[in-house]
Amino acid sequence: MVYTIRKFRVFMVVAAILIISTYLYIDKPYSNYDINHIKEIDNKKIEEIKDYYLKNINISNDNNKYIKVKKIFIKKNQTLGLILGKLNISTPRLILKKFKSNCLYKLNVKDEIIIKLLNKKLVSIKRKNKNIECLYESNNNKITKITKTKNNFKEQLVFFNNISNSFYNSAIKSGLSPNEIMLFADIFGWDIDFSLDIRKGDSFGVVLERIYSNGKKYDRSTIKYAVFKNKNKIIEAFRYNNKYYNKKGTPLEKQFLKAPIDFYRISSHFNRKRLHPIFKSVRPHLGTDYAAPKGTPVYSTGDGIIIHKGRKGGYGKAVIIKHGNIYTTLYGHLSKYHKRIRAGKRVKQKQIIGYVGSTGYATGPHVHYEFRVRGVHKNSLKIKFKKGKKLSKKNINKLKKIHQTNINKYTWLRKNYIK
Asked: What is d(CA 415, CA 406) in angstroms, rounded to the nearest whole number?
């Protein structure tokens, strides 16, 4: 009995020791040997992982050594298919599919194309221009488009001056740039002949907006309001829907421009009894000659269709344009034609058709301009042309609302400087 009790006590002590040991070491399942062994395994795995990635990096670096890069700037009528074809690379099907986010489907002239090849196989195609970057990667057959954001800054400015000798010089002195002067001349070109009509004491004023991109010098301007005083007549122009109107909603734009070139002098007027400077005999001069430096752009004075492009006797290189069923205009003595014009092609008003020259019977560089009504020659300087369609009351109110914030500037400009 005593032995049994002793045996039971020993059993209880051992059991207690086991329970206490289990409780104390429940979160420490490893012995020192196990811990050291696991560290060895972990270190071995780390080394294996390092070796794996180093190997892949080395492979990638080795591949980069053999990647060939082709840079191309897109020319007219050039496509990605033609470019890849010359490299013996087939165009990926994804690029040939037309969908909204496919920025490689249609390219623009002067786009930069960067093609990467590895072992004569396509790696990637990148398209770059000032607006977007577009990337195709062959490993995932995916097109990624990145639109470049422009940090545009707008500045509104007021310019004005009195004309002492020439409008152009006075405009330059006021602070307007040459491009802004041309914009101004375009606005009033239907009403004012900048060669004949300008007088000393005339004045002008402009409220414009200059737009700066990414902190650079302004890259474009928009004239919001312009006013011109010519021979005691004041003409105002308010911008609305990319056109210009007076305050009553009548457009300044008319059916024909007053002249086919900008900033010129008239060397010979319309005259039915003019002494010809070359033949020294009285011959009718059924047009107006506008003298300007060789190469000065010549515009179509109205919308129409070109019915003649080529040499025409004493006119030299000439262009004839038909405007509807009633009017035709002729432009003679050109030095060359604009590359995009041809007989049968439609042209818009103020579109360049050629350049001033002295081909044919001419004593110096000028453009000979004729205006015909139903085939009969007319003096273009004396014809009153039709005005465009007047704005509705609703649109006149919209025009006024747009300009309401600047109305005080316009009033100040007219009262103080347009005298």
From this structure: 15
We report the CATH number of the domain holding residue 194 as 3.10.450.350
Distance of CA 210 to the CA centre of its chain: 15
Is the distance from CB of 166 to CB of 229 less than 8 angstroms?
Answer: no
Give the domain-ending residue among 147, 176, 196: 147
360: left (phi over 0), alpha (psi -120 to 50) or beta: left
> Please, which pLDDT band fits residue 30 given cuts at 50, 70 and 90?
very low
The SS3 call for residue 258 is coil
List the one residue out of 300, 268, 299 whose CA is nearest residue 284.
Answer: 268
pLDDT in tens, 59-83: 455 555 577 888 889 888 888 888 8
pLDDT digits (tens, 9 = 90+) for 245-299: 999 999 988 888 888 988 677 888 887 666 655 555 667 888 999 999 999 999 9
Domain enclosing residue 359, as ranges = 265-378
* Cβ proximity of 135 and 126 under 8 Å: yes
Using DSSP's 3-state secondary structure scheme, residue 312 falls into coil
